[in-house]
Amino acid sequence: MNNSGRCAACKYLRRRCAPDCIFSPYFPPTNPQRFVSVHRIYGASNVAKLLQQLPTHLRAEAADSLYLEAQCRVEDPVYGCVGRISLLQHEIHKAETQLVKTQAEIAVLKSQSTQLGHDDDLQALQFESQSDAIGLNNFLQEQYLDFSNQGSSGFI
Ligand SMILES: [Zn+2]
Fold first, then answer.
1. CA of 124 to the centre of ligand 1 (A)
2. Are 51 and 27 contacting, i.e. CB atoms less than 8 angstroms apart?
3. What is the dihedral of CA 120, 123, 124, 129, to 10 degrees?
4. Domain count, the chain
5. Cα-to-centroid distance, 37 and ligand 1 (Å)
6. Mean pLDDT throughout 13-28?
7. Ligand 1 centre from 28 Cα, in Å?
8. How many CB atoms lie within 10 A of CB 30?
């Protein structure tokens, strides 16, 4: 491999990129910032050791993770990615609280509308029984009047 094909790490460290370079598959020369961030936070030799300790199929994911965590640490030197995680957890908590509140409001509104529905039924029932009673009263009054008319006419 010639020097123009060096990976981002070897370019940055100004060294020859060996064919079995541990950085080469994960730090391409097209993205030099990726290695700069990781090197700044962890140090090139630590990253190399870490990658070498891992099975080959996990190295790409580990390099991505190291890069993301390094980026977070650059942006937030105190908390790093924990700062982002805390922020997102806070947002999740806020959203969950809002959801519980909204569900409670929905439950209250549902129970109110159900009660109103029952009230309507009750009022209708009361109205029916009232009108029945009025009807019965009217019927009895009519019967009484008929009877008294007949009675009076009978007696007269
Ligand atoms: Zn290299």
1. 86
2. no
3. 160
4. 1
5. 16
6. 96
7. 9
8. 7
Domain that holds residue 43: 1-75
CB 40 within 8 A of CB 66: no
> Which two structure tokens, joined as six digits, stand for 142?
């009519």
Q: Is residue 148 part of a domain?
A: no
Using the mean position of ligand 1's atoms as its centre, give its distance from the Cα of residue 32 in Å. 12
74 Cα: distance to centroid of ligand 1 (angstroms) = 23
d(CA 98, CA 80): 28
Residue 147 has pLDDT above 90, yes or no: no
The reported pTM is 0.59
- Cα(61) to ligand 1 centroid in Å equals 18
Provide the residue type at 52 as one letter. Q
Tens digit of pLDDT for each residue in 52-107? 999 999 999 999 999 999 999 999 999 999 999 999 999 999 999 999 999 999 99
Q: Give the closest residue to 36 by CA, choosing from 20, 55, 49, 23.
A: 23
Q: Does residue 100 belong to any structural domain of this protein?
A: no
